[in-house]
Amino acid sequence: MADSNTVNITDKKTQIYTSCELIEHGFMVDNSNSVRVCSIINDKYDGRPIIFSNYTGELFDKEKFFAIKRKHREMMKNGTPPVECTGCPMLREAEWDDEDYIDNLLFAHWVDCNSRCMYCGATTDEFLREKYRYYDFTPAIKDMIEQKILIPTAKIDFAGGEPTVYPEFERLLTVFLENNFNNIFINTSGIKFSPSIERALKNRQITLTISLDAGSKEMHRRIKRVNSYDKVWANIKKYSKAQQYAKTKHKICLKYILVPGINDIRQEIDLFFEKVLAAKINHVALSLDMFWWEKHKDDDNSELINMANYFIYRAEVNKCKIHIYPWARWLLGIKG
Question: Which of 90, 96, 132, 292 is deepest in the core (most CB within 10 A)?
């Protein structure tokens, strides 16, 4: 850093070694009241090295935070990564710099949701709300922006539970929007409409991913275990109009999480794409039930692979941009 308040990333000292974006310049806040490096759970180790424990929204101790980041960085340079990172498929050889700044942030500290998705263990009972204390991260974000350690080009990722159900969501997103952050990714069920999301789409500041996981109303209710299909599609249409207002493409992404034995059928995928195209959306995503994957990754998954490839084929035929999430990539044997 050039001084205590300015990040100098134009004159960086770089080195080539194996690491990842989050180890180098990122972190996540999760629902175990921890600040961690990432959200990736390894099959051999738990993954997600801890930076701070027992965290409840306090302002970061900048010196302590970056001291831990530098320690992890030196471990990667020496080829001795934190044990939690051993064998992680997200590691890659690249040119990394030594500066102290944050350019990758994942919010995953929500402890509530307005869906009860069959593939998500966190929403099947009340244990998160009983075990962990929810906290508002907005003050810490404002402090990081004021200190200029969270750079405006940073990737800001809102994951689940469901971010829109929390009272500070509109306020927190507004902080990013008013400070000209333009690389924001929001994952939502689409059940609750957000005025800030609509505004951000009009201003071309976010990419919005709505997890549908179905084409039909019946399958959507079966997967989500709530009756919200009509409301979700009404909100998608509103968001689509905001995207059209901004004259942009690919800022709204509709996601399909394959749940083996449930929605891995052509009829549902075909209906999904019919709805996508009718809503004038041209960006889709494919993922896989990660808990199923951990149990069945060594099985013969040829039929599921065929269905994943069919989804990709439908996206290509309909000229949709497609994002493939890690678990689906691993199913298909795609590295990275």
Answer: 96
Which residues lie below 8 Å from residue 78, measured CB to CB, with a gap of 6+?
Answer: none
> Domains along the chain?
14-114+123-187 (no CATH), 189-336 (3.20.20.70)
Return the percentage of the chain with pLDDT > 70, whole number: 90
Is the preceding omega at residue 121 within 30 degrees of 0, hence cis? no
User: What is the number of H-type helices and E-type strands within the chain?
Assistant: 12, 12
Q: Which of 277, 273, 257, 263 is nearest to 313 (CA)?
A: 273
In this predicted structure, what is the pLDDT of residue 336?
55
pLDDT digits (tens, 9 = 90+) for 291-329: 898 899 899 999 999 999 999 999 999 999 999 998 899
Q: Which of 333, 255, 334, 328 is nearest to 293 (CA)?
A: 328
Whether the predicted model's global pTM rises above the 0.90 cut: no
Average pLDDT of the residues in 66-94? 90
- Rounded Cα distance between 4 and 12, Å, is 16
